[in-house]
């Protein structure tokens, strides 16, 4: 799927842990990473895409994860984009543990985000910038 200047791909055949999913996105070419979501319009387009392709009703990894633990629970995107937008579900992000947390699109609407242990295996959404031609 294409949106603005990016290409998105949903990998739902083999669920992976967060770090494995990020490596898969990188190895798929095109400077890809787990998807970063920059605004509400992009979130709506991504959610419709995932919902249309993936009917299993399970969470899907995106590229946001916590760091600087246990001092703080700061968040960063795997592609180093600035975290300027979020769409947390009520009660999220969870502050329950000192472990690294990664972010999944919640099953159902795929619009809201939930923090979860990075060791869970889920389908995942990759995003790669479209290459400039010329």
Gist of the model:
The chain is of the alpha+beta class and 134 residues long. 18% of the residues lie in helices and 34% in strands.
Using brief descriptors, characterize the structure shown.
Mannose-Binding Protein A, Chain A, globular, 4-stranded antiparallel β-sheet
Structural notes for this entry:
The protein is α+β, with helices and mostly antiparallel strands and 134 residues long. It has one domain (10-129): Roll (Mannose-Binding Protein A, Chain A). The chain has helices at residues 18-27, 40-53, and strands spanning 2-3, 6-16, 33-34, 60-67, 74-77, 101-105, 113-117, 122-129. A four-stranded antiparallel β-sheet has the order 1-2-8-3, with helices on both faces. Strands 5-4-6-7 form a four-stranded antiparallel β-sheet, covered by helices on one side. A hairpin with a 6-residue loop joins strand 4 and strand 5. The model has no long low-confidence stretch (mean pLDDT 88).
Question: What number is the mean pLDDT?
Answer: 88
Query: Any idea of the CATH topology?
Result: Mannose-Binding Protein A, Chain A
What order do the helices and strands follow? EEHEHEEEEE
Largest sheet: 4 strands, antiparallel
What percent of the residues sit in helical stretches (DSSP H or I)? 10-25%
Number of domains: 1
Question: Rounded to an integer, what's the Rg over CA atoms?
Answer: 14 Å
Q: What are the low-pLDDT stretches, counting only 5+ consecutive residues below 50?
A: none
CATH class: Alpha Beta
Per CATH, the architecture is: Roll
Question: Would you tell me the structural class of the helices and strands?
Answer: alpha+beta
């Amino acid at each position: 799927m294409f949106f603005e200047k990016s290409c998105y791909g949903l990998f739902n055949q083999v669920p992976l842990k967060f770090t494995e999913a990020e490596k898969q996105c990188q190895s798929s070419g095109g400077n890809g990473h787990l998807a970063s979501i920059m605004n509400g319009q992009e979130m709506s387009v991504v959610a419709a895409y995932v919902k249309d392709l993936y009917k299993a009703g399970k969470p899907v990894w995106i590229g946001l994860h916590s760091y600087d633990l246990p001092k703080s629970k700061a968040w960063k995107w795997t592609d180093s984009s600035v975290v300027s937008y979020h769409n947390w579900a009520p009660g999220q992000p969870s502050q329950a543990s000192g472990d690294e947390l990664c972010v999944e699109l919640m099953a159902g609407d795929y619009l809201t985000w939930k923090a979860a242990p990075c060791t869970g295996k889920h389908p995942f959404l990759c995003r790669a910038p479209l290459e400039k031609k010329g």
